[in-house]
Amino acid sequence: MMNDSPETNEREAPGSLICARCGAPFRCGAQAGDSTCWCATLPALPADRLRPGVSCLCPACLAAEIGRAGRAK
User: InterPro entries given for it (predicted)?
Assistant: First the structure.
């Protein structure tokens, strides 16, 4: 997860979010009440890649951001 305030879609099932970058819907296990979310299996983003006020990213956008962070080292 990018931060603790992801945009939710109240008409959808618990954990249904909208990607802050591309607008794609996706499921957040943490918001749905699961013990973990799919993003917990990915490498953490460096703190300098986190953006205040930006919510969770979908799997594709988070993977792309992790890839960019790895190349920027």
Answer: Cys_rich_CWC
